[in-house]
Design a protein that fits this description.
298 residues, globular, alpha/beta, Rossmann fold, 22% strand
Length: 298
């Protein structure tokens, strides 16, 4: 494993079990108080990366009362992890194995996991593969049933990547596409989202993921059956669980949200007012909920 320090976090590069180079950010690694507490591991959505959690990780790792060590992972094909030459590896089972590799390399024996969208689906698998690893779980706008309509919307905006020449254009583009679902966001939020989703390359602002990730979505239509992970969801019953639903989400339906609570009576339910898929977690209302949940575990 190689590493370098970059401001508030340390960058970690390490091989997956098949040798592909993976990347993670580690916050609070040099804070003895933070290292003494249960760590937080952050898993991003389908095309997203560790930068999605940067502001949340900074808040958690530097909190004056109880700072936390926070690890945020780039899956293969996203961010600073290598693109996989075998595109069939872009699947949940392989990515779940990569998460286990990251935990082993970064000495995470048990943690509270935050899974946004696809990251939450990976946590459903980890509950079956390595249940002892999960001390607590926060599912961010995802559950055992994924709405087909929402997946079609994701495909639509991932396929329609515009040509962007500046960070201002990138933020404005995101606001045009997602603004109706995210009335709670301000201009700073859109700028932050652009910096998380895109990167500068050859003088252009481009999406920071392997386009091959979109291929499995191309066959989805309104008649496609919805993914059903209720059997795997049962594995989360022994775990401290909180689920956040974006008020305007097209991925996690109100019916699924309610059924999750029915099947896990101790689950903490939080609605991200004025946000869609997937909510920004560093905003004050959600950060307070996350802090309260985490501190209630350890």
């Amino acid at each position: 494993m190689t590493h370098s320090t970059n401001g508030s976090f340390t960058e970690r590069f390490f091989p997956a079990s098949d040798g592909l180079q993976l990347y993670a950010r580690e916050y609070g690694h040099d804070n003895l108080q933070a290292k003494a507490t249960l760590p937080i591991v952050c898993l991003a959505g389908l095309s997203r990366n560790s930068r999605d959690f940067h502001l949340l990780a900074e808040q958690l790792s530097t909190h004056p009362q109880k700072p936390r060590r926070v690890v945020a992972l780039d899956y293969r094909g996203r961010g600073f992890s290598a693109w996989d030459p075998d595109k069939s590896h872009y699947q949940l089972a392989v990515e779940a194995e990569d998460v286990l590799t990251a935990c082993a390399v970064l000495d995470v024996a048990q943690a509270i996991f935050i899974g946004t969208s696809r990251g939450g689906l990976i946590l459903h698998l980890l509950a079956a593969m390595r249940p002892a690893l999960l001390r607590g779980v926060i599912l961010n706008d995802i559950g055992p049933v994924v709405e087909t309509t929402g997946l079609m919307l994701i495909r639509q905006y991932l396929e329609a990547q515009p040509v962007l020449h500046s960070w201002k254009e990138a933020a404005e583009s995101l606001k045009r596409v997602h603004g109706a679902s995210f009335p709670a966001l301000d201009e700073v939020d859109w700028d932050d989202m652009a910096k998380a989703i895109f990167r500068e390359k050859h003088g252009m602002i481009v999406a920071d993921f392997d386009p091959a990730l979109v291929e499995p979505l191309k066959s989805i239509n309104e008649n496609s059956p919805m993914a059903d992970l209720w059997t795997l969801y049962e594995g989360l019953k022994p775990v401290h669980l909180m689920t956040i639903r974006g008020e305007n989400s097209a991925i996690l339906s109100p019916a699924t949200f309610a059924e999750m609570a029915k099947r896990h009576p101790q689950m903490r339910l939080v609605t991200a007012i004025g946000q869609g898929h997937a909510p920004l977690l560093h905003r004050p209302d959600l950060f307070a909920e996350i802090r309260g949940f985490i501190n209630g575990i350890s």
